[in-house]
Amino acid sequence: MLTPGSKTSAFFLATLLILAGCAVGPDFHTPPAPKTNAYTKKPLPENVTVNENGKKVVQTFRPGSDIPGEWWTLFHSRALNGLVEEALKSNPNFKAAEQSLLQAMENVGVGEGSFLPSGTASLSTTQQYFNGAAFGAPFLSNLFTLNTGNVSVSYTLDIFGGIRRQLESLKAQAEYQRYQLEAAYLTLTSNIVLTAIQEASYRAQIAATQQIVNVLDRELSIVRHQYDLGYASRTAVLTQETILYQEKALLPALEKQLAFEKHQMAVYLGRFPNEKIGDDFRLDELSLPKQLPLSLPSELVEHRPDIRAAEEQLHSASAQIGVATANMLPQVSLTGNYGSESIEGYFSPGSQFWAWGPSVSNPLFQEFTLYHQKKAAIAAFRKAKDQYKNTILQAFQNVADTLRSIQSDAEILNVQTSAEKAAQESLHIAEHQFTIGAIGYPDLYNAQRTYQQALINLVQARANQFSDTVALFQALGGGWWNLPRATPKGVKLANATR
């Protein structure tokens, strides 16, 4: 039979349980995708044709097609595939991103623990001496031992959803770290491929420069011979020597840049710069992908890990408004206490005591502070919302830039291929004409300079076509969604195409 006091407590608890179904603060909803159906103002061509190393390569844009998770295999380089896989296993930054995700996931576990009761158990033994002389009864003096056992349990009722909102924020932070891991995966794989391309570019520029040096050295012999015969001036010999030495001076600078790329690659692989990192890369050994998958604009917000990470930051900031709101409201707890106190032993019959009941606490003299904490949370949410919008705008700009670059690179590469052929033929004619005395040295000098610049420009144009193709895959998100979900152990790769 319920007593009046117990009826009151039961009604109080029922009321609290009904209220506990609510959570203050805004409920988060994923922002709608941008209402745009194109990346660029001008329509995108169906394909671009590239004169790659004497062969016509057609790169076709495939709107709506999906990007493979291991997009780098489209360059058909076994050495490159191997380096990417090794980097994903050994790169310190990538492993640190894994641990950040693990830390965030464990923090979610901490937040979930807030829904459980908290309790303490204690046992204590105290010896006490009672002196009866103080009461005129020395015969009552005695030494006795007091044994106390106590179990206390407390449970906070999440009436207004503050704990739920805090857990919601922690889960959003964990998802943020998950997308940060995906972004680290995309950045690392892209950097490996770009570094390999830069290495190949510098190696090609060194070979081209050495080729030019050989041409200039041969022509210096011709000029000297002309000088010995009286057909060329001493100034012409000195000018040719100057050109030759200036060209040779370019080699150390290019070799330095090549060494820097090798050092960078070693760091990406988690190695020291003095360690061997595998085969050398050359542009002729890489293949331009013929198919260029292009995500639809409406899908980009789902594919870019930086956008997804910004969305989770927005989600976390939204939940913090609920936390700040709940802190302004009363906090309700249930507490229970059970134990015994006896000189005969722990939990002796008749020595038990217990107590239980709800308690309500309400902040006093903190309204000003709590009010501004809530306003700060709202401002943080608005800031996160603006940052989210800016991330989307930058992502679309990134894709638009790379699409335009690929088109421009193709045009430049085709022109530079023709320019190099024309400059080389012009140089051969100038050399022959100078040998037979049909032209003077200034004409030969101009032909040399034109060929030098055309050859280097061609190498750089080829490298740019590869680099901007990589940039497109990166700008579209890199296909991470086609791989197993990121875990603290890292992104597990499927078997690469070998």
Describe this structure as you would to a colleague.
The chain has 498 residues and is α+β, with helices and mostly antiparallel strands. The chain has one domain (4-117, 161-331, 367-482): Outer membrane efflux proteins (OEP) (Up-down Bundle), CATH 1.20.1600. The chain is 57% helix and 14% strand. It is built from nine helices and seven strands; from the N terminus they run αββααββααβααββαα. A four-stranded antiparallel sheet has the order 3-4-6-7, covered by helices on one side. Strands 1-2-5 form a three-stranded mixed sheet. Helix 2 (78-90) packs across helix 4 (162-229). Belongs to the outer membrane factor (OMF) (TC 1.B.17) family. Keywords: Lipoprotein, Membrane, Palmitate, Signal, Transmembrane, Transmembrane beta strand.
List the defining traits of the structure above.
498 residues, alpha+beta, Outer membrane efflux proteins (OEP), four-stranded antiparallel beta sheet, disordered C terminus, efflux transmembrane transporter activity
How are the SSEs ordered, and which strands pair?
Layout: H1 4-19, E1 47-52, E2 55-63, H2 78-90, H3 92-112, E3 118-130, E4 142-157, H4 162-229, H5 234-268, E5 291-294, H6 297-303, H7 305-326, E6 331-342, E7 352-361, H8 367-435, H9 441-475
Helix pairs in contact: 2-4, 3-4, 4-5, 4-7, 4-9, 7-8, 8-9
